[in-house]
Amino acid sequence: MLVASPSNSSIVLSTQELPVDVAEEEQSVRRAPVLAAAIVAPAAQPSMSDSQNRTEALRLPNAEARAGNGASELAPLRTAEEEAEDRRLIEEELKQRRVEEEHARWRAAEEEEELRAQDEERLRFEAEAERVRQEEERRLAEEARIADGERRAEEQRLAEEAERLRLEEEERTRRAEEEMRLLIERQRLERQLREEEEARQREQARLREAGERKQRLMQARDSGGVMLSGTVNVQGGGSMLWKRRFFQVRGSGLELFKGEADADQPLDTVASDHIVKITDNPEEALVPHSFKLTLKDDDEYLFYYNTEEEKSRLVEALVCTMRR
């Protein structure tokens, strides 16, 4: 049913008096806003489903149609021009609604395409970001591997360098020790040779001096003079005590005096031809640098000096008197 505006006093035309196509278009016009709202609603109200929108759109026109049928019975009849004008307005409104619906569908498709493009762009961006992240991880892993290899190589090089330096230091130490050992050995050999040479020279000097001394002793013996004189510690002549005595060795034998001032009064005389044996360092003397004279009558005299050289000179002089 079509109802004129309140300012218009023309009679309302009932849908029962209109042709069938006009009534259908009127109902389409009534449904068009609801259908358009149902089409656009998903973009404006994302929470309502498509089936609910369609059901609501079909329910509203039917209710309006029932209300219109009741009102048409009461509304006055309209003229053919008004009906034609109404039909024209309805057609224009339908065309406008169709354009708007097409535009809404186009806009919805465009938005859907834009959303799809955005999703594709987002997915592409995420894939690119993931690829970049993986490439960055691979690059960092490769750099870490290279750095680790370089670090290991550097550690190996440093270890080899340290080992080389250690071996060189050990070799230098060994050479220095060997040179020091050779130097010490050479010094020892030189010192040994020098000591041996000095000992040989001393021995030669001793032998030469002994020869000269022996020659002097023999000359003094043959001339009847004093071959050797000095002081000595002596034990004998029936005494067990050590006594300090002045002595003189002549060709005839050994004379013992109380002191050098009493050289003209001998206390005891040991003839050279009575000496049977001279024993060096006898046990009964109990002192070093000692010797013992054993006489033919088994009498014994013990002598000792403070030095070996003094003892040797006295023994040498006594032996010289025994070899006449």
Provide a brief overview of the structure.
Residues 46-55 have a biased composition (Polar residues). This is Enoyl-CoA hydratase/carnithine racemase. With 324 residues, the chain is an alpha+beta fold.
Overall description:
- With 324 residues, this protein is an alpha+beta fold.
- Among the domains are: 20-125; 226-322, PH-domain like (Roll), CATH 2.30.29.30.
- It is built from four helices and seven strands, in the order αααβββββββα.
- It has helices spanning 20-44, 50-72, 80-223, 308-322; strands at 228-236, 243-250, 253-257, 268-271, 275-280, 290-295, 300-304.
- The protein has a seven-stranded antiparallel β-sheet with strand order 4-3-2-1-7-6-5.
- The longest helix has 144 residues, at 80-223.
- It is rod-shaped and about 205 Å long.
- The chain starts with 19 loop residues before the first helix and ends with a helix.
- The relative contact order is 0.06.
